[in-house]
Amino acid sequence: MIAGHFAIADITKLTCFQSENLWYLNLAAIGPDIFDKIVSALFGAPSRGVFHSLPVFVSIIALALLLRPWVGLEASTISAGLFLWGSHLFSDFLEPRVLFWPFLGPLGTSPKFNIMDKLRSFYIVRVFPGQFWLDVFFVVSMWVIVISKFVISRSSNY
Ligand SMILES: [Zn+2]
Asked: Domain of 21?
């Protein structure tokens, strides 16, 4: 999923975490990709790597809870970030080997991350049809919510 991660962040902003910063929500929604795609582009590591792993996510949750008193973030901000990071792992349809890394062996190899190849294989060739349609579902859902809120706000002005 590509645009769908951003759509989930926008849906979250429009519904349950309205007071959180939209940039923060979008960054959290693509958090695993930010780390893994950069490492993949630079060093040829798998593009769905260590930061797409559930044990690493649990470590991030523990770290967030540990550092929260020192960093001074609201519990809702931490919850929003963790929710979106978790939604990323769920919506990526990860292989068990990636999701449970390092418990099921090494990640394996994959070609270096290239954004144009990724966009082409995802939206034109549709190598991952399930993910493509999940992407479409979240983007359409986001627009339905945006348009609904717009219509409701206009009708309440009369
Ligand atoms: Zn990802």
From this structure: 3-156
